[in-house]
């Protein structure tokens, strides 16, 4: 089993930056990892994903060019660097691990393990 814990969320003004971390209690090099977010009364949406090796990544159009996902399998940690934050980025951010595929899925139902989430609030 893989347990995931997100950290790094907080309050930031528009245009600022945050770096989220997703730490695994067990080895998760065999999992693709995605970041998702969910705002109140909104559906959970895909933000970014990274392959098992870290050799490929994928981003939602809304964050492309502003967010960067990376992983360090030796540290069992995945990161999400978020720059030029906008108020519409406000949400609870979750990391999730997918054991079922080598590529990156944008569907939350394809992921096997989830963290508890970390709140990101961007003020205007």
Layout of helices and strands:
Elements: E1 4-7, E2 10-13, E3 18-24, E4 32-38, E5 45-50, E6 57-59, E7 67-72, E8 77-82, E9 91-98, E10 113-114, E11 118-123
Parallel strand pairs: 2-11
Antiparallel strand pairs: 1-3, 3-8, 4-5, 4-9, 5-6, 7-8, 9-10, 9-11
- Based on CA inertia axes, which overall geometry fits? globular
Number of strands: 11
Which structural category fits the helices and strands? mainly beta
User: What percentage of amino acids are in beta strands?
Assistant: over 45%
**Largest sheet, described in full?**
7 strands, mixed
Number of helices: 0
- Stretches with pLDDT under 50, minimum 5 residues: none
Rg calc: 13 Å
What's the SSE pattern? EEEEEEEEEEE
Mean pLDDT: 94
Q: N-to-C terminal Cα separation, in Å?
A: 40 Å
Helix content: under 10%
Question: What does it look like?
Answer:
This protein is 0% helix and 48% strand. It has no helices and eleven strands. By secondary structure, it is mostly beta strands. The chain has strands spanning 4-7, 10-13, 18-24, 32-38, 45-50, 57-59, 67-72, 77-82, 91-98, 113-114, 118-123.
Which features characterize this protein?
single chain; 124 residues; mainly beta; 4-stranded antiparallel sheet; 11 strands
């Amino acid at each position: 089993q893989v347990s995931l814990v997100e950290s790094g969320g907080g309050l930031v003004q528009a245009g600022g930056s945050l770096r989220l971390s997703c730490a695994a209690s067990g080895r998760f090099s065999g999992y693709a990892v995605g970041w998702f977010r969910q705002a109140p009364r909104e559906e959970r949406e895909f933000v970014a994903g990274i392959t098992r090796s870290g050799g490929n990544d994928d981003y939602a159009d809304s964050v492309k060019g502003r967010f960067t996902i990376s992983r360090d399998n030796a540290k069992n940690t995945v990161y999400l660097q978020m720059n030029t934050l906008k108020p519409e980025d406000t949400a609870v951010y979750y990391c999730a691990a997918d054991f079922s595929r080598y590529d990156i899925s944008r569907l939350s139902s394809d992921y096997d393990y989830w963290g508890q989430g970390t709140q990101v609030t961007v003020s205007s």
